[in-house]
Design goal:
- This protein is mainly alpha-helical and 241 residues long.
- The protein folds into 2 domains: 106 residues, Alpha Horseshoe (Serine Threonine Protein Phosphatase 5, Tetratricopeptide repeat), CATH 1.25.40.10; 108 residues, Alpha Horseshoe (Serine Threonine Protein Phosphatase 5, Tetratricopeptide repeat), CATH 1.25.40.
- It contains 13 helices and no strands.
Length: 241
């Protein structure tokens, strides 16, 4: 097997073979060797193997160094979840969590300060706080997710997720999100988009009713009908509202 060491995966295969043969020291030796050889293009499978072996030996700090390197390259929800799994094995999650959130804030800040792409063929959009919103929602910290969205914005699907969470205690927030989303959805100019927009209108009508703002509901529906009167299929779908 060692005749072909052209990729990090070859080192992993050798490490796995030694592990299966009960020679864990040799396994770790080959895995670490592979990480050094391919330091510029690390294989996550090999990194995970090394980290697991370090954890097994109670060398948790070394394991976390490896996993932290992974997270630095992928500072998003999946990487955050992976970091948490390993940090909990080391009983160090609180400190690593803080470090991870600080890194994400730094990435967002750095990206914000970069000038927009000048290539006309590339679509450039300013960075938002979607990574943080997604992480806080995963942690069920809806208030922190909402604050991050207010500060730096987030993707449409995350706004919709936030709206669902805000409906009960903060219906006005949910209504504002749904109204904005309707304008975006209707641009699709197809029946699927119209059906989605119709559902959002029903939701808005219900929430305004709960808030005791039925008059606002009537006025808003009238505005939508007037604004999109040329979209006959859409107008037909909302005729009963």
């Amino acid at each position: 097997m060692s005749k072909d060491l052209s990729s990090a995966y070859q080192f992993l295969e050798i490490a796995e073979a030694y592990k299966d043969g009960g020679q864990r020291n040799k396994a770790l030796e080959w895995a670490e060797r592979g990480l050094k050889v391919f330091a510029d293009e690390p294989d996550e499978r090999l990194q995970n193997f090394v980290a697991d072996e370090f954890h097994r030996r109670k060398r948790h700090d070394e394991a976390m160094t490896v996993i932290w390197g992974q997270f630095q390259h992928h500072p998003y929800l999946n990487g955050y979840m992976h970091l948490k799994k390993h940090a909990e094995r080391a009983k160090q999650w609180l400190s690593w969590r803080q470090k991870a959130l600080e890194l994400i804030h730094k990435h967002i800040g750095d990206a914000t300060r970069q000038p927009p792409k000048k290539d006309p063929w590339l679509h450039w959009a300013p960075p938002d706080h979607s990574p943080l919103v997604e992480i806080y929602l995963w942690e069920k910290d809806v208030e922190s997710a909402w604050q991050e969205a207010q500060i730096g914005g987030c993707s449409d699907h995350l706004w919709m997720e936030l709206a669902k969470h805000r409906e009960k205690d903060h219906p006005a927030d949910a209504v504002a999100i749904y109204r904005k989303q309707i304008d975006l959805v209707i641009r699709g100019t197809n029946n699927q988009a119209y059906r989605e927009a119709s559902k959002l209108l029903v939701k808005i009508k219900q929430l305004l009713s709960v808030m005791g703002q039925d008059n606002d509901s009537v006025e808003y529906l009238a505005k939508v009908r007037k604004q999109h009167k040329r979209k006959r299929n859409f107008i037909a779908m909302i005729s009963s509202l």
